[in-house]
């Protein structure tokens, strides 16, 4: 392993860390010297007001941009800038901790603000960053204009499975990628995968003045952390990987994701059934059926909500997002109760908040580079059939055995990653955190990740995605904070209950 190593990684909804990405190669002495300008640059911290999303950050948060090559194999070529943010430690400073919230494509700048105000910010400068191609980082991946989004972006949950419906979605996917190429160029579209983001992360470590990286990654952030650890094992000080998503290949990953969503929905349904006027039933098979009975009329007759409209896809988007944390379950219940009376305000309001959480344009680009692709319609149909079998609550019953090719099938550059088993020596102890009922990250995948990393696993008995500093569990938070500050890992097998 060496500093110039380039790991290759593999990877629908903001997801998915057991099998990790690729081989690591060593650059020449010449390439090391060529990268020196990036590793030795001096950044200038200042106000975040000129950064996309910066106006939402507290005045004490500082922002800067880090120069990086678009293609690390061509350090003298085109460059970009990665936006970073920092909230300085309140107390006796240990160093900087870099945080990634997941997605890929979730906003990173605000994590300095939100996590910096928790116990984490007592001893650490908390640093957030926007992935290359997203947010305040430049150049930004551009695909559709606002006016084009309505016509070229298919619904997240397809309902027309007729041959013409499949053809329409596939044509829209192809047109979408064509627009990406036209507006972003193939060089950028081919260099926004996790392989490059891990390289950016090491440059960030260097310009922060840290000899070794202290890192916290949630969901996709766990994949990124694992990739970094494989590429730069000697540069890791401490690393917490929370709610990592599986990386067994794109088809297996999607099926596991759908199965995890079904598990979360079943848990919600059992909880809901204990209350009066629950709109679904506690029996999992009945609950899924009752849900679709409520939602299916939206396929032919969406519900007007003022000048807006609640579609089937919008309702499902709202429900899936609400399953990520028990705090959202009341939204599902009240939204479905309202739907029974022919109104869709609650579900539509919830659905419209989801696109702002993750930059789906960047998410698509990362997944298309990190994963092997499905380029055969028969394979796409078989994948879809397995997904519906894993999550009956998402099956509208209209699937006819045909499915469109997705956007990645038309991506203009080849994948930069392939699934493989994580294997690296020289790493310090790391910590893996996982919830048993995580809606997006199967618990057994995190068990495998901890085993492959030879690191302790903290288990949280709960149904949510993201645990450390997000669950209110002192049982989880205290040992992780102690590990980050003192480098003393917790005992393996720690089991924590919800507060």
UniProtKB/TrEMBL annotation:
InterPro entries (alphabetical)? AB_hydrolase_1, Serine_prot/Carboxylest_S33
Q: Which Pfam families does the entry link to?
A: Abhydrolase_1
Report domain AB hydrolase-1 positions: 97-469
> Per UniProt, which keywords does this protein have?
Hydrolase, Signal
Molecular function (Gene Ontology), one example:
hydrolase activity
Q: Which family does it belong to?
A: Belongs to the peptidase S33 family.
Protein name in the entry: Alpha/beta hydrolase
């Amino acid at each position: 392993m060496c500093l110039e190593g380039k790991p290759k990684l593999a990877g629908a909804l903001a997801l998915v860390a057991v099998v990790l990405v690729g081989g690591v190669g060593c650059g020449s002495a010449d390439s090391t010297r060529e990268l020196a300008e990036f590793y030795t640059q001096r950044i200038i911290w200042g106000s975040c007001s000129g950064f996309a999303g910066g106006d939402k950050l507290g005045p004490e948060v500082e922002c800067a941009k880090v120069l990086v090559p678009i293609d690390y194999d061509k350090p003298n070529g085109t460059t970009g800038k990665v936006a970073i943010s920092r909230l300085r430690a309140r107390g006796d400073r240990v160093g900087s901790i870099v945080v990634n919230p997941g997605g890929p494509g979730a906003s990173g700048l605000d994590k300095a603000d939100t996590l910096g105000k928790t116990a984490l910010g007592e001893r650490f400068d908390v640093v957030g960053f926007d992935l290359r191609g997203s947010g305040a980082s430049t150049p930004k991946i551009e695909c559709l204009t606002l006016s084009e989004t309505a016509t070229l972006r298919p619904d997240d949950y397809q309902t027309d499975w007729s041959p013409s419906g499949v053809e329409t979605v596939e044509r829209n996917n192809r047109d979408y990628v064509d627009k990406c190429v036209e507006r972003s160029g193939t060089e950028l579209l081919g260099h926004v995968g996790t392989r490059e983001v891990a390289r950016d992360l090491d440059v960030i470590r260097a310009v922060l003045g840290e000899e070794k990286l202290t890192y916290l990654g949630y969901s996709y952030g766990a994949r990124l952390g694992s990739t970094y650890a494989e590429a730069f094992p000697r540069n890791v000080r401490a690393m917490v990987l929370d709610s990592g998503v599986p990386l067994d290949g794109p088809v297996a990953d999607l099926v596991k994701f759908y199965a995890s969503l079904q598990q979360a929905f079943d848990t919600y349904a059992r909880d809901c059934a204990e209350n009066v006027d629950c709109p679904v039933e506690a029996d999992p098979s009945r609950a899924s059926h009752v849900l679709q009975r409520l939602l299916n009329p939206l396929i032919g007759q969406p519900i007007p909500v003022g000048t807006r409209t609640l579609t089937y896809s919008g309702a499902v988007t709202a429900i899936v997002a609400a399953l990520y944390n028990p705090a959202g379950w009341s939204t599902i219940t009240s939204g479905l109760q309202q739907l029974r009376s022919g109104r869709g305000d609650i579900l539509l309001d919830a659905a419209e908040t989801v696109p702002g959480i993750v930059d789906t344009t960047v998410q698509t680009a990362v997944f298309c580079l990190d994963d092997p692709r499905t380029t055969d319609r028969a394979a796409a149909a078989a994948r879809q059939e397995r997904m519906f079998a894993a999550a009956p609550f998402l099956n509208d019953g209209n699937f006819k055995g045909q499915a469109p090719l997705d956007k990645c099938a038309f991506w203009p550059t080849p994948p930069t990653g392939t699934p493989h088993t994580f294997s690296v020596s020289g790493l310090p102890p790391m910590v893996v955190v996982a919830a048993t009922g995580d809606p997006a990250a199967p618990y057994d995948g995190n068990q495998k990740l901890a085993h492959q990393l030879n690191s302790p696993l903290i288990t949280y008995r709960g149904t949510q995605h993201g645990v450390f500093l997000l669950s209110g569990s002192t049982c989880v938070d205290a040992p992780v904070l102690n590990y980050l500050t003192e480098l003393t890992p917790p005992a393996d097998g720690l089991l924590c209950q919800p507060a």
